[in-house]
Amino acid sequence: MSPADGAADDPATQGTSVEEAVRSSAGAVRRLGRGRPNRRLLIVELTLLALLIIIPLVTNDAFLVDRLGRFFLLAIFAMSVDLIWGYGGLFTFGHAVFFGGAAYVVGILTTRDWGFLPIPFWPALLAGVAFAALLALATSFFVFYGRGALRGVEFAVVTLAVAVIAERIANAGGQVTGGQNGILMNARLEIAGVAFHRGFAFYAFTASLLVVVYLGLKRFLRARPGLLIRGVRENEDRVGLLGYDAPRVKRRTFVLSAAIAGLAGGLFYVHDGIVSPSAVGVAASTLVLLWVVLGGRGTLAGPIVGAVLLSYLTAVLSGRLLDTWLVVVGITLVVVILLMPAGIFGFLEQDER
Amino acid sequence: MSVLRLDGVTKSFGGFMAVDHVSLQIAQGEMRGLIGSNGAGKSTLLHLIYGQLNATSGTILFDGSDVTRMAAPERARRGMGLVFQITSVFPGLTVEENLLLGALPKETRTRLGVDLDEVERMLELVDLGDVRRRHAAHLSHGQQQWLEIGMVLLAHPKLLLLDEPTSGMTRAESHRTAALLRDLRDARATDAMIVVEHNIEFIRLVSDRVTVMHRGAVLADGGIDEVQASPAVQDAYLGRLH
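^ inputs. structure came back:
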């Protein structure tokens, strides 16, 4: 242990040895929690990072690279679901409401010609993320608090209902949401004239964002809030009976998860050029669950791979097998889940026996 | 000053008086046994103390303040620690992580840290040092119970409530548990303990004083030999065991 690792912050312990020092909560969680180097995880991370860097160097297929860039945004969406479901144990059937909802906000703010609108893309994206976070916050107060707090299947059913309602609203929103046609996005991804809307630049942007979100979430999960949210997953009553505010733990994680989903969604549909009602619906919400299951719940890296692999497979197969691609994807999923019930990266979560 | 004081605490379900005007005080440093046959109301009383159930009438004073209407997590924050009959640890977290969840500050805004030395000492005390990185789900029943005791104690409770801690344990495990509780008392890990049990042998090993419940009310209260000698107690409860 190095002296710099979680320094003593209590003056009363100054002068004692490092081993006797009172540690900050985060330092303590890092040290005693999953803080010790996990070799398997490190290998996986370095391999993925290497792939991320090598792929654009060995190909000059701008279309493939552009497509992968899109998948990275879906991977961020998958991580947001892994945070709330894999780590928090809250099974959500409606996370596309945040992913697509933020995109609708971006679409409305950047294309409509009302009042002070349209506004530039980046503030609109910020508003989209805030919308997703506030929606999650408002939902939290209904589902996590009081005697009627929802757990397990009840929570899943409510999120499902929210997704169904959101899709209806998007369909019926007239001039605001563009109805069935949705909203044609006219914003482009660029900062100060430097565009990264397509191809290699887009890839570099989304790959960087993927790495940043991954590292940020990893940090969050390895500190106090991460340990608490996993505690809620394992035994929520016990968390409360130790004196923690369990509903607050869930609320914060849900809001963070929604904000991340919103960030990914706002970027995804602007790149796509259109956002339509299915973006906030049940189908989109279910698809992301498949990515998480395929990659491995509660592994963070797994859902990234799940999202990219399944999206790639779908893209390739739907082009070649016009009628049967969905069957092939389905069979692949069933086989993988039967052979690896904990997902491709489930081995990351096994403990030392 | 007493750590816990109940005055006329009553719980009725419909017309049934599960707990009937129970008054008792737990003093600083005390290890109180709470015994009684099945259905005597001891578990219900425990639920009332930690807040899983709300009393129909009466008051519960804990550490000087009235907690009668407080929710369980709030009472926990004020220093009640509960060890369940059916072990309640975090199965998918490691032993270390379980203990850490006991030790972490409960308020987010505090700048307080965690004394890792204390966590290490607890790991030794509950004898789980060798399995520290194993998931709690893979421990034996006895080990899980000790882990729960260690985790709850790391939250520095003023009052530790144990609901039939030896149920499902082997005789050897019961004896180790008793020794552990005595060590914890000697180490002043908590101000007071209440142990709900029907294992008299175990109660004899850990408590100074017992309260016998029968049909929701307190039947007798005192030293264990004195209580065991009481004809009313023998009649109602202890006699039937032999």
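The mean pLDDT of chain B is 88. Residues 126 and 146 of chain B are 6 Å apart (CA to CA).
thumbs up if we can close this ticket
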